[in-house]
Amino acid sequence: MRTWALLSILAVLTPLAASAATAGDGEELRKRWWPKSYDEFATLAANRRLTAEDLGAYNYLPPGKYTIDNPLVITGREAVFLHGIDRMETSLVPLNRGQPLLIVRNNAYISIAGLRFTGFRGRDGVNLRVEGDGEQMLDVQDSFFEGGSVELEAPGNTRLQGNFFNGLARVGAQIVQDHPDSTLTIVGGNITNSGVDGGSDIRSYAHVWTRSGLLKIVGTGVQRTRGLADFRIDSAPPVGYEHQIINVRSEGERGLVGKPSAFVFVPPTTDQVDISIVNSAGAWDVSGEGRSFFANYAGQGRLRLIGNSSDRGVGRAVNFSAGQRFKAVGIANTTRAPWRPSEDLESSRLIFSHERYAAKHDNPVPGQRAYKEIEAIGDSQALFDNDPLDIAIPEPLVRPRFNSAPEGMRSVIDFGAVANDEVDDSPAFAKAFRASNRIYIPAGDYRLGEPIRWNDSKRGRIHPVGGALIGHGSQTTRLIGSGGTLFSTQGLAYAHIQGLRFVDRSAGATVVSLENDPKIGHATQSNHFYDIAIEGGQTALGLGQLSRQQCSENLFVDFTVRDANTAVSVGSFNALANIFYRVSIAQTATAFGQHGKLKGGSWTVLNGAFSNISKEIFRIQAASNGIWFAHGLQAKNTTLIRSGANGAPINLFVNQSDLEAIAIDYRAGGGVILNRSWAKPLVATLRAPHADAYLINIDSETDMRLPTDLDDRFAIENY
């Protein structure tokens, strides 16, 4: 194993805050208490009033409405698990709307999954508050928070993974962090003020407000800010650390025409607020062309902008007013509007501009440079002076195994399916999905002559959003097709899929198809896939291959593909902020590729092992604010990225990866950044006929072999 691959693994054990609450301690706590299966959980009665006295260590909440004479206070426990399986139908509802719904205080470990926090109708409701003097570890995953805030006011580590937050413009911030010894890590999910497009205006609003503590955000989607900024950071991180915002895609409109907004806001402070914004992108057109900022910074510290892209609405990357200790440095950033980096940055390299929406650069005018470098100033080595860009990614949160159908789910066996025979079980599966939105499939092999159609708008949306499709495990529950798509949906949202293996080796098939109709469809978004394997097919997993619908913010944890032509095919430019977390892909031509005429989307790939990839890991033809982030890749004897030959700004950031005998075939705008990675030998084919482009090595070990006639539009930088 190479040096940087080892660092990638050790990063999980690296302390994230200058306190005893370290990532390493967190992993040990989680391992100590984590159950092997839901057999260890006590099932609570549904549709009841819930009190703290009802809760043991392991609590399964079947779908239903749980009223709470709030606040419900969980205090002084070693570990408490509150898990549901259908986050849209398992609701915690307050009786007292002037009090927090749930308070956790001085507990060692709390795990929350698959629940809906809802019911606040007025301003400033609090769905969840963490308080107390003792360090606490809180994991929240796959849950839905509505109309209220999450407040973190105690020392310790909080992980938020794959959650959906909709504040409905009723709170000043949906996530508030306010303890100097707290570490908040947000991975995936979505934060929005959906449904309030009619001009709501919370002037001090931010989706996430870090008053104190350490903040890290990875691969999250944000929309409808309706206030100052997506993220507000008021104070310095612990000594020796920096706040990090990585691969976040924003549509942060304020909602009132002409009111400027920002991606990140730092108010006036004498604190040394050090922030790195990496490979993030957004468009803020409602504010008015050129009225918004990527960063509105008034602290005294360092702001690093690396590999970011902005489109409509952003006039300047940085707006600042600060003392002489302020330093803003940037490299490989893109803005659509005319902008002079020397107005804002102490040093800058490779600042690019493009004049049209990126997705329209598929057929550039010959000789036109739609994407070009506009200015270079200062010494960009200041980006990394005595301070490498250390991006540590924790291991994913998982879900325990289901050995049988829990309360609130129906088994396909009840509808006539029989495992391990040669009979077509499609009729039984169709009956099951007509009867219920929550289906369990026991261990065994099931033959399917017709695809599973779940919330397929071509057949009518027969169920509300949410639901669950659960198998015993990807090693034991197999769905076997005989010539076509095995799973199809047009409009599945907020659902949970776990523990299944899809097998169909027919040529030309898309085995699992999410949003694949060019004419009809609802947004397929914010679904969670755990322990999923796919074997065979022309395409194993299709995300918005033909549809313009969203197909965004889907989370895949422990995702395996074998023997497909393309493992993951992405079409829609609205297929944004999808995360693949702990991935294994083998015996494919292309691991991640774009499909057909609809080319776009953005992906985050964390901890991926690739073997026998005959063509490329990433095939990217065009971009919609194109940002792709990859961490912890293990691959050899293949091409890392093959781009289209156009002016689209494609930005791929590769972090702490081990790449042996790797190639890069790059012909578009934007470029590739390798950070703290090992890539030997690296053979690069670099041509940029319609744009300027870059290849950047940051603290990486590479043995780069360049073409003798290197295109002069390509910049090669080493730091």
Topology:
Elements: H1 3-10, H2 23-33, E1 42-43, E2 58-60, E3 64-68, E4 72-75, E5 79-83, E6 90-94, E7 102-105, E8 109-113, E9 116-117, E10 125-131, E11 136-141, E12 144-146, E13 148-152, E14 156-161, E15 164-166, E16 173-187, E17 190-192, E18 206-218, E19 221-223, E20 229-233, E21 243-246, E22 249-251, E23 262-266, E24 275-278, E25 281-282, E26 292-297, E27 302-306, E28 309-310, E29 314-320, E30 327-335, E31 347-354, E32 371-377, E33 410-411, H3 426-435, E34 438-441, E35 444-448, E36 452-456, E37 468-471, E38 477-481, E39 487-490, E40 496-503, E41 510-514, E42 528-535, E43 539-543, E44 555-562, E45 566-570, E46 578-594, E47 603-620, E48 627-631, E49 634-643, E50 649-655, E51 658-666, E52 669-675, E53 678-686, E54 693-698, E55 701-705, E56 714-718
Parallel strand pairs: 1-2, 2-5, 3-6, 4-7, 5-8, 6-9, 7-10, 8-11, 9-12, 10-13, 11-14, 12-15, 13-16, 14-16, 15-17, 16-18, 17-19, 18-20, 18-21, 19-22, 20-23, 21-24, 22-25, 23-26, 24-27, 25-28, 26-29, 27-30, 30-31, 33-34, 34-37, 35-38, 36-39, 37-40, 38-40, 39-41, 40-42, 41-43, 42-44, 43-45, ...
Antiparallel strand pairs: 31-32
Verbal overview:
The chain has about 725 residues and is mainly beta. The strands form 3 sheets. It has a 24-stranded parallel sheet that branches. The longest helix is centred in the N-terminal third of the chain and has 11 residues, at about 25-35.
